[in-house]
Amino acid sequence: MPHVTLPQGFSLVFFLLAVYCALDPFEHSPIAGFPDFEVHKVDMPAWSEVPKDRDKENLLQKSQVLFVNQVQGPESIAFDPLGRGPYTGVADGRILFWNGQSWTDFAYTSPNRSEEICNPKASASPLSYVKTEHICGRPLGLRFDKKSGDLYIADAYFGLMKVGPQGGLATSLVTEAEGVPLGFTNDVDIDTVGNLYFTDSSTNYQRRNFIQLVFSGEGSGRVLKHDPSTKETTVLLRDVQFPNGISLSKDGSFFVFSEGMTGRLRKYWLKGDKAGTSEILAILPGFPDNVRVNGNGDFWVAIHSRRYMYGHLTALYPKMRKFILKLPISTRIQYMILIGGRLRAIVVKYSPEGKLLQILEDSEGKVVKAVSEVEEKDGKLWMGSVLMPFMAVYKLA
To answer: pLDDT band at 10, cuts 50/70/90?
Structure first.
């Protein structure tokens, strides 16, 4: 038997490791099941422009955690015109209503809902339902029409929908625009005359593949308007990298939406000399989810995670990103590296002019852990998260 020297042994191990990484025989890579996966450069702001402000007191750790394991993945939170609620969409496809004593079923979005597949399971987590979302529905953004009491729903799979004040099966309003199906309907808002503004995060990736959407950096997202009186749907902005939350201004002269990939708030003018144009309102300290206006006209933004240099560089250099994504490293680990190693909760408030007014954090993820939306009501911030099995409430000073 030939003698193998130590350097030769190391070389052999290195060669076998390289072959293993290149072939990924057990398909551990996040993109192993996506043969057409492509990466794109992300239009990131300069690192020097990213706000460095922090909540050194970690004030969100003073939040009260409510409804543990009673609501799985409460993405959006809404209160009806009478102030009742909250209402929230959960991971199994239902929209629930808190009647003051318990949660009751209010509505659902899927006409194909199967009790066997979709009914809540005692041991489930928010991620347990991802494989059946396309069957059961996944209601994300929720908004009430303050005049009629109708609830408008952005369902990730079934598009833009509406359900009356009595609840039940929601009615489909929009499933495509310009002949292109909605791929990932994410959030919605309604103006005083009933026009609906909503986001379609991607026409290529569904929500159940949102992590591949994040890793790809692709820009097929759209921001749209639907006029219920004419049933006409118009694409206002296209080729957006992951448009997410959307909220009209207090006076209705513009709306803002969050750019999930680039970490920005963008303003789109509806009235005045700038009508039909958009501009950057703010560069955010992290990557945003939903945005909601408060009674003063300021905007609360839920930040999914802060920015880190690793994510910044891989966004700017897609070839490097694709090389890393091909490695046999699980999706969860790759994702945790991207967001800095752990889940953290951050919410920020901006003025209509884009000035950072307040930042609240649980930077250690001890209490709130993650936030998808912030709804201000009666001096309190109601927070939900698509990843968590609870809501959190923070009392403003």
So the answer is: low
